[in-house]
Amino acid sequence: MKDAAPETIYLKDYTPFGYQIESVHLTFRLHPTATRVISKIAFAPNPEATDKRFFLHGEELSLISAKINGEAITPRPVEGGLEADVPEGPFVWEAEVEISPETNTALEGLYMSSGMYCTQCEAEGFRKITYYPDRPDVMATFTVRIEGDQPVMLSNGNPLTSGEGFVEWHDPWPKPSYLFALVAGNLVNHPDRFTTQSGRDVELNIWVRPGDEGKCAFGMQALKDAMAWDEKTYGREYDLDIFNIVAVDDFNMGAMENKGLNVFNSSCVLASKETSTDANFERIEGIIAHEYFHNWTGNRITCRDWFQLCLKEGLTVYRDQMFSGDMRSHAVKRIEEVLQLRARQFREDNGPLAHPVRPESFVEINNFYTATVYEKGAEIIGMLRRLVGDEAYRKGCDLYFERHDGQAVTIEDWLKAFEDVTGRDLAQFKQWYSQAGTPRLKMSEAWNDGTLTLTFAQSTPPTPGQSEKKPQVIPIAVGLIGPNGDEVVPTTVLEMTEAEQSFTFEGLGARPVASVLRDFSAPVILEREMDDDTRAFLLAHDTDPFQKWEMGRMLTKDMLVAMITADVPPAETALDAIKTVLTDESLDPAFRALVLGLPSEDDLAQTIFDAGQTPDPAKIHAARKSLRHALALHVSDVLPTLGRQLETPVFVPDADGSGKRALRHALLALETLLDDGKAARALFARADNMSDQSASLQALLAAGLGQDEIKAFEKQWKNDRLVMDKWFMMQVSFAAPDKAASTALALTQHPDFTIKNPNRFRAVFGALAGNHAGFHAADGKAYQLLANYLIELDKINPQTTARMSGAFETWKRYDADRQGMIRSELERILATPELSRDTTEMVTRILSA
Ligand code: BES
Ligand code: ZN
User: Of the listed 291, 337, 601, 841, which one is catalytic?
Assistant: First the structure.
């Protein structure tokens, strides 16, 4: 049935389903356009439920037959599924449906990718496979029979039996339908084994298309590291005989944690030094861990309803962040997290799409897999841990796992475990889940005879649907640095609960400098008067690596804002301070690379807007370019020696190697502005790994050079899809502002461009949206081009279209002309006949700004 007006779902309306499921048996008879799915489901009344309506979700299914207790019935079709009259007691439901994986371009449900059958069920895709109560609070054990001629046929759980043309799988752990998975195709595996802490032997496999076997070793090592880490850090052990990972080319997201059968976007698992950058390796390690960690935080204990999404995602992101910190460097990882949080989540919180970490309503749940749910959700776990301490955090987690194993639960259940182990009342803390917007924290200081008083005032700007904001619990980690540069008070966590609150440090000799919000202890915007000399002092002396970096960032950001809004030249204090860090060999090269990185154009636009002015994208771009040039000149004398020190003769994608390369590449980008591309061309010519190859090419493109190298790169990599994604992306990302739209348009005419593959679409259009000055070029061509392609893509893939429409979320920052152009593009999208519910919701919310 076709949707009428899209319905809004509310958290407050939650009611349990009227029936429980004892067991599910599914048989798949695979066929590209006519797959049969035969289901046999044992239902029993749910004693906890009052509503006994028997409704099963189902979308785009052809019902062949249905039975209850063996007798044929004719169910009533209703909006989004079907209804039937059922007996009072337990009963068995059977149905046969037909579906067409080959024509499923939405990549949700059962679909085909490079000739292979695969599924994506989260959040509500299982209803495109068969009729079912497709909601996370209905958990059941699944037995799956796959009939077909594919060499490899996989599903969740342990293998049961197999024979000519069929296999059977059984998953003993009750799970919601969104964790169901099936994969079938001509696949080869990279096998390994893992012995768990209790001695269980687990078979591990990464399944890939023939030819990709050589790109699995790194992912496999990451998996084993993640398994060992979860045992050591959380006491969580794997619980099946086999763990399978499959790489698929066409995937809307990064990866999916289906029980025992994780499905990955091939870009998030395949790795080799020739084809993957250091950033790719780091991402692959993190995402493999993330999906593995869901086995406990998400699968064994799942969400009662989709409003609780942060229960599994925020917590699992927090867990993968800690894992990556342990594997690499906590300091570097934390800075990268904050960069990402500010770029994505603060941006979201500041615009029309702002919503609480636990939203109260949605139209399409796929639109709520957001930076807020994920990243602010993870920050909340970090704050909780800071407030209760490491030991109580672990105890609370243990209690949560013990109490709720096998259940579908809520944020309240999660917090209750911590209240019970600590005796604390977390009622005010819980507001972090319900209040949208980024709190502003204004700080002032007073010094009086050996006592330093820090006074904080918190306020949160209004967000859509929430005008009144209450004070939150904010953990503020503070340390004090004496005038000689020594730390006089080590990190202490101040617990702010009031709208305004003061904290004193007594018995101090001389007036110290406060280092505030160490390790970014809360996701807030700290507002504090500080001159450049004090910043340079903390940049030199702070013991907290995050704050040390933050001081460099504030120096460069203020300098850039002044260059943009007041036409002043770069400040010497700031340039000197950066150079000092750059040449300080006691510091980790990865950290030095981060200090050298300038705030993004998007970040600067937001900052200028927050200061009450209208950002001019062209001016921002020009100022950033001129600062890069000034910086290059300022450090030109040290470039050759530094470059030599940072050589990494053997490529190892670990923290040390990638850190050295990050700094070397940052320096190369500066050098390229001075030497007409000589050094970059030389590195490009001799590069034996993708990090060096792409960094040298990007340095050239950013300097307006590199056209020969772009051709050579294409020639070398035309048969490797993942590397070609980089080729598409780089050209658009580094196109000059007046060339971005035309470059993207030209690339859409390339024979290898296709809107059917989300990675390829994102390579071109994600890059266009991310090229700030290019996207916001005054002629509006980029807005138009993106809108054209969103309208096209929506017909085949609503989920990715809706996600990409977020490119327009910041439109209210800009001048009237740009706003007018964006508004008319958004209205044009909205006026498209049969626009998906996904895109309709997003564009409507963006327009309502
Ligand atoms: N459960 C999600 C995948 C997902 C997202 C399925 C949205 C359906 C709709 C998975 O665990 C996830 O969060 N993946 C992230 C990467 C992760 C490292 C944050 C992704 O795919 O981007
Ligand atoms: Zn996840």
Answer: 291
Hey, whose CA ends up nearest to atom 10 of ligand 1?
Answer: 256
The alpha carbon of 606 is separated from its chain's Cα centroid by a whole number of angstroms, namely: 21
Confirm if 780 and 801 have CB atoms less than 8 A apart. Answer: no
Q: Write the DSSP string, 248-269.
A: ES--SSSEE--TTEEEEEGGGT
Using the atom order of ligand 1, give the atom closest to the CA of residue 287.
Answer: 18
SS3 117: strand
Per-10-residue mean pLDDT of the chain, 849 residues long, equals 71 98 98 99 97 98 98 98 98 99 98 98 99 98 99 98 98 99 98 98 99 98 99 98 99 99 99 98 98 99 99 99 98 98 98 98 98 99 98 99 98 99 98 98 98 98 97 98 98 98 97 98 98 97 98 97 96 94 97 98 98 98 98 95 91 97 97 98 98 98 98 98 99 98 98 98 99 99 99 98 98 98 98 98 96
3-state secondary structure at position 644: helix
C-alpha span between 97 and 77 (Å, rounded):
14
Contact, 805 vs 790, CB < 8 A?
yes
- Predicted pLDDT at 461: 98
Q: Any bridge partners for residue 91, and if so which?
A: 43
Find out whether 259 and 173 touch, Cβ atoms under 8 Å.
yes
Does 313 qualify as catalytic in the annotation? no
Q: Is 525 left (phi over 0), alpha (psi -120 to 50) or beta?
A: beta
What is the C-alpha to C-alpha distance for residues 221 and 285, in angstroms, rounded to an integer?
Answer: 9
Orientation angle between helical segments 721-733 and 740-748, nearest 10 degrees: 150
Q: What predicted TM-score, i.e. pTM, was given to this entire model?
A: 0.98
Residue 802 CB less than 6 A away from ligand 1: no
Contact call for residues 481 and 511 (beta carbons, < 8 A): no
For the stretch 201-206, contacts whose Cβ atoms lie closer than 8 Å and that sit 24 or more positions apart, written own/partner, are 201/241, 202/227, 202/238, 202/240, 202/241, 202/242, 202/243, 203/241, 203/242, 203/243, 204/242, 204/243, 204/244, 205/242, 205/243, 205/244, 205/245, 206/244, 206/245, 206/246, 206/247, 206/269
pLDDT value for 1? 37
Whether 167 and 146 have beta carbons less than 8 Å apart is answered as yes
CA of 797 to the centre of ligand 2 (A): 21
